[in-house]
Design brief:
Length: 331
């Protein structure tokens, strides 16, 4: 029996394959109930605080809707909405919020911050994104893959881009935990940290998964079940990095030639937002400066029948709901 009551959700390295699979099963149940209109306010009367030092669309909406569906009150604290780390220490903030709330979400910067919140909180703390890890996104990603193919073990997922970021790190971890084959296609300068790679390879010895790092995008994407990418400059990084990253990562753009190099029924995933056209202010700025209309993925792939990005985005809500329910439920 899997019992996650009272647990923090900071990174997937802390969870066993069985525990991750249990969260996915719970998410599937909640998705069915949501689509059928079946009430599931099982946590009625509880209160949660969601701290956002980095703005968000999907993560904020997922936590708010999921919390309210479960019957909870939700307090949003935006980038200027608290004194966290400014006039009040992280430890003091954790103890104050834990005296008023049943759970705390944090989306922001270093992993050490969410870890310190958890260390000083008597209620569960959930990681909505840090510089190092993005565990709630990973649950949505693998849920989407499982919905598509019916299974996860042995599936090949390829990440193209800056593999040192929170998404690249976390995909490598979740694939290793679930016996999947993870490949990162990136320039060596943007490979994941060696320490984390070795830790994941050890996990793979137990689960049957694998980790492959390559600079050859056509070699790496061959036979993939899912291709995944992320923006080339992450939130919080300076705009000055764009020129350097474009030079490094333009060869790793997912276009239709790359997509066709994967399996015929392969799917495309992206954590969003995506710069697949010039429909955003940043997209327009990049086009004006560098002449690029599309960046990490072409619009052709993004809008193609391979794309599952919006199903993936919806699954954020169902998986986050599962995490909150399983860590806060009484029985």
């Amino acid at each position: 029996m899997v019992d996650l009551r009272g647990r923090d959700f900071l990174k997937l390295l802390d969870f066993t394959p069985k525990e991750i699979e249990h969260l996915l099963k719970t998410a599937v149940k909640f998705k069915k109930m949501k689509h059928e209109g079946t009430p599931h306010n099982y946590l009625k009367g509880k209160q949660i605080a969601i701290i956002f030092e980095k703005d968000s669309t999907r993560t904020r909406c997922s936590f708010e809707v999921a919390g309210k569906d479960l019957g909870m009150g939700v307090t949003y604290l935006g980038p200027t909405g608290s004194q966290l780390g400014k006039k009040e220490t992280i430890a003091d903030t954790a103890r104050v919020l834990a005296s008023m709330y049943d759970g705390i979400e944090y989306r922001g910067f270093e992993q050490t911050i969410v870890q310190e919140l958890a260390d000083y909180s008597k209620v569960p703390v959930w990681n909505g994104l840090t510089n190092e890890f993005h565990p709630t996104q990973m649950l949505a990603d693998v849920m989407t893959i499982k919905e598509e193919f019916g299974d996860l073990k042995g599936r090949k997922l390829v990440f193209c881009g800056d593999a040192r970021n929170n998404v690249g790190n976390s995909l490598m971890v979740v694939c290793s935990k679930l016996g999947m084959h993870f490949t990162c296609c990136a320039p060596k300068a943007l490979f994941p940290e060696e320490k984390l790679v070795e830790e994941c390879k050890k996990i793979c010895k137990e689960t049957g998964g694998s980790v492959t790092l390559t600079e050859d995008i056509m070699k790496g994407t061959k036979g993939a079940d899912a291709l995944y990418t992320d923006v080339w400059v992450s939130m919080g990084e300076p705009m000055e990095l764009w020129e350097k990253r474009i030079k490094l990562l333009k060869p790793y753009q997912i276009n239709m030639d790359v997509m066709k190099n994967a399996k015929k029924n392969a799917i495309f995933l992206h954590c969003l937002p995506s710069f697949h056209n010039t429909g955003t202010s940043i997209g327009k700025e990049i086009f004006e400066k560098y002449g690029l209309k599309e960046m990490e993925v072409t619009d052709e792939v993004f809008e193609s029948s391979h794309s599952r990005v919006f199903e993936e985005a919806e699954n954020r809500m169902h998986t986050i709901k599962a995490v909150m329910y399983e860590t806060l439920k009484k029985q």
